[in-house]
Amino acid sequence: MKVTVDGTALDLPAGTSGIDAVFAAGRDVPYFCAHSYLSPVGACRMCLVESGSPRKGKDGQFELGDDGQPKIFWFPKPMAACTMQATEGMHIRTAATSEVVAKAQAGMMEFTLLNHPLDCPTCDKGGACELQDRAFEYGYGASRFGFDRRHADKHYPLSDFIILDQERCIHCKRCVRYFEEVPGQEVLDFIERGGHTFIDTEEGGLPVGFQGNIADICPVGALLDNVARFRGRNWEYDHAPTTCTLCPVGCSITADARSGRLERVVARENRDVNEAWICDAGRFGHVFASQGRLTRPLVRVEGELREASWDDAVAAMRRGFAGTAPADLGLFLHADSTLEEGAALLALAGALGSRNVDHWPRFPEAVTAPAATLGDLATADAVVVLGADLGEEAPVAELRILEMLRGGLIPPEFAHGTAIADLRLVERPARRPEKLAVIGRPSRLWAHAGLTIEAEGRLLERLIAGEGADWRAALTLLERAERPVLVLGADVLNAPSGTFAANLGDLALRTGAKVLPLAAAANSAGLAHLPLVPRVGALGYANLAGAGAAFLSRLDPVGEGRPGRARGFTVVHDTHLTATARQADVVLPAVTGYEKRGTVVNIEGRALALEPAAVLSGEAADLIRALGAVAEALGVRTGVRGLKSAHSRLAQEMGAVPVPGELLGRPGHHVAPTGGLSHVPRLWREGMVDANWAPQPAWAGLTELPMLGAPPPRPAVLGGDD
To answer: Shortest CA distance to 27 belongs to which of 85, 92, 74, 83?
Structure first.
């Protein structure tokens, strides 16, 4: 359709909103309430424009003006562009060409600021505040109201993680709509009317899971992240666009550091993965990156671990490995390590002739059925979740399923980005729970499913056999759907039967379903491509105690109740002094996932990039450099000393270095037994909450947060009052 904005003619798809037409023309219009992934409601009245359309006569043709062109009939008053649909032949005027619009927007800004407190010098949102920016651009610059502003509660806790300043709230309704439309939780709403209106929760506060997203979408400083509160101003942070490695979804985030500390994590838009949302663990659980870190190597001297230099550590490793055959060395790393780090480990193993390599956590069976993406999950017409607790294994995948239940409407993309107002999205959307079946142990997703089956053991086989009426209903749901997706969790993947792959392939073929297996860790899917698993007859991570000597990177078997040492010399590479590190002969300080540069592969097989945040970690080193020190101690050359050489090795292993955003598909090979080990998914882990917030015994309650919805330990107020 043809639309004209401030004299610029555009050709736009039908259904485009007026506000997206304005931005498509390269023009600007202020807005506070509109959001790309929420329903447009026109609450703030700032995106006002003048609009007019041609009118058809009785003959069905457009009425023509004196110039022979369709005559434009202008609406009598400015209209909110976010709720207005652009139509064929429509003309739109913004403040750039219309004094009426400019005056209307300045007037609305004046009303918005009528009772807004003058908190800008102390507000955490300063420098990133939409109201601050738009008041400068579109306001009068002075107030005509000299009376005392309305006063309301400040520093009001909606939960232990989110603080509300009621005086700053401009009633845009983004937070209310977010809870109703995204996680499907009606827990926040407007209370009272007129000048007395405020937002608040029902008793019990906000549920833990996805509450932190309201701090991102709040256009002012009304809703604040209590973990990052008073930590710094926006212009003081070093912003690092990276990928979250706490779970295998791989959400896009921005890690904000100040003075060498990681102070804040915010969501970054990625339409294919997390859209604009992240889970609470990913947002608030970053404190471990700046607390209790190992910053120097530790060497065991006279039975005690003592700080040492890297040269001393290399010398100690040279002495310790002297009595062990290089081929007997076990090399084991955590499955959130990057592809480049995995390639470096394989290079060292090749130079030593060792086949004892492994990554953990992982599952023992490769899935070869047609792969589903997170986009497929959101646009499916039927989903069966089998043996998965998404709240623990892949939280944002749960949001994509809830998106499916409300119609799978993904906002279109324009040259200016994701549509600012998708008119197909509505408030309080109707959901279709009959499209979702959840089988396994009770989880948070059960509240949204039309069919739930509580069961353990042989879940895939029982589904295929249609064991009872409910099982047959779940199977029928897959068979009758046009775009079904089957999600497989840890309860299925931990202990597959001998016919697992054949059974899954037959089910996928019979129903036409795509399959989304939830990987065990952030890069389990990527490391399986290398392949970083023990060769035939070699020792895996489960057989650590049988290795002649061992190198473990960011693994803590002692903390999991298993032996943490090899028969001989043991080196641990970790960020903190774990239970396993306390038993090691040499401990090398490691960097966290926030400080790495490299590539990981998420649950859908998509390559994602990591970029380092400006976090001070002393002499900590990534795995590539740590393996270089081990190679030096062993007197071998691996050819991998940094990221560039790791890419060369990675290209040898995979054919090419994956490009961020690229879908790699299934590894489809190199399956290795896990030695009887089972992976128990756990999202919130020790160290992810500041130990100073609450007495340590309160930590026990946090481990059950995602399922039970219990509040986490209350953070102390960080700093002074605004």
So the answer is: 92
Taking the C-alpha atoms of residue 528 and residue 490, their distance in angstroms, rounded to an integer, is 17
Chain center to CA of 53: 42
**Other beta carbons less than 10 A from residue 156's beta carbon:** 16
How would you class 120 by CB atoms within 10 Å of its CB: exposed for 0-12, middle for 13-18, buried for 19 or more? middle
Q: What is the largest CA-CA distance in the chain?
A: 100
3-class secondary structure, 469: helix
Point out which residues pair with 485 in neighbouring strands: 383, 514
CA count, 13 A, side-chain hemisphere, 681? 28
pLDDT at 333 over 50: yes
Per-residue model confidence (pLDDT) at position 669: 63
Band of residue 366 on the pLDDT scale cut at 50, 70, 90: confident
- Rounded Cα gap, residues 320 and 318, in angstroms: 6
**Alpha carbon distance 499, 485 (integer Å):** 21
Q: Where are the beta strands (DSSP E) in 235-381?
A: 238-243, 252-258, 261-267, 298-301, 304-307, 329-334, 357-360
Residue 127 burial (C-beta neighbours within 10 Å; 0-12, 13-18, 19+): middle
Region at 259 (left for phi over 0; alpha for psi -120 to 50; beta for the rest): left
What is the residue type of 111?
A: F
Helix boundaries (H) for 81-121: 99-112
Task: Give how far the C-alpha of residue 414 lies from the chain's centroid of Cα atoms, to the nearest Å.
Answer: 23
Question: Does a cis peptide bond (omega within 30 degrees of 0) precede residue 531?
Answer: yes
Q: What phi-psi label fits residue 507: left (phi over 0), alpha (psi between -120 and 50 degrees) or beta?
A: alpha
pLDDT above 50: residue 441: yes
Sign of CA dihedral 237, 240, 246, 250: positive
pLDDT of residue 708: 32
* DSSP class of 271: T
Cα 387 off chain centre by: 22
Cβ atoms within 10 Å of 618's Cβ, excluding its own = 11
Distance from C-alpha of 430 to C-alpha of 531, rounded to nearest angstrom: 45
pLDDT at 668: 60
The candidate with the shortest Cα–Cα distance to 527, out of 393, 679, 338, 681, is: 338
**What are the backbone angles phi and psi of residue 31, rounded to the nearest 5°?**
-155, 150
Provide CB contacts within 8 A for 618, sequence distance 6+.
Answer: 293, 294, 295, 296, 589
Three-state DSSP class for residue 116 = coil
Backbone angles phi, psi at 225, to 5 degrees: -70, 115
Residue 583 pLDDT class (50, 70, 90 cuts): very high
Residue 386 and residue 488 in contact, taking contact as beta carbons nearer than 8 Å? yes
429 Cβ partners below 8 Å, 6+ apart? 39, 180, 181, 406, 407
